[in-house]
Design brief:
mainly alpha
Length: about 140
């Protein structure tokens, strides 16, 4: 039987013994592996790495280093890759959470522009132009 995130959260909030909780639930924890995660996304979304890298507007050698695990991207660069993969907003938010980045926040003006761009299915370049037109820093 697997436990949902909500079930784990509930147990965690009510535990009296964190060590026992961790031992009992160790099979539910994982350390995310960004290169494998990105590879899985590419496969599931039927996207080619080279096209995604080009579409991300990132320096190609830097982007390949992210895919190989040699570099860990900033939040903005990760968002650019996720937009280039053409993930919907909900999956981008989940991906950000998995890797410990702040979610896109609608009350943050810059994030609101990014959320809008994703919702309008803009590519990274279009998103960067939108941000720039409103005096906000580009993703890449």
């Amino acid at each position: 039987m697997t436990k949902t995130t909500e079930e784990l959260f509930h147990e965690l909030r009510h535990t009296k013994n964190i060590v026992y909780y961790m031992e009992c639930n160790s099979s539910y924890f994982y350390s995310p592996n960004m290169p494998q995660y990105l590879k899985d996304l590419l496969h599931r979304c039927k996207r080619k790495k080279s096209i995604v890298i080009r579409s991300s507007c990132l320096n190609p050698s830097y982007a390949y280093q992210i895919f190989s695990g040699l570099k860990h991207p900033t939040r903005d660069k990760f968002i650019a890759l996720l937009i280039a993969i053409k993930l919907p907003l909900e999956e981008i938010q989940e991906s950000l959470k998995i890797f410990g980045y702040a979610s896109l926040y609608a009350k943050n003006q810059r994030d609101a522009f990014i959320i809008y761009a994703i919702g309008q299915q803009m590519n990274v370049m279009q998103c960067n132009i939108l941000l720039s037109n409103h005096d906000e820093a580009a993703l890449t």
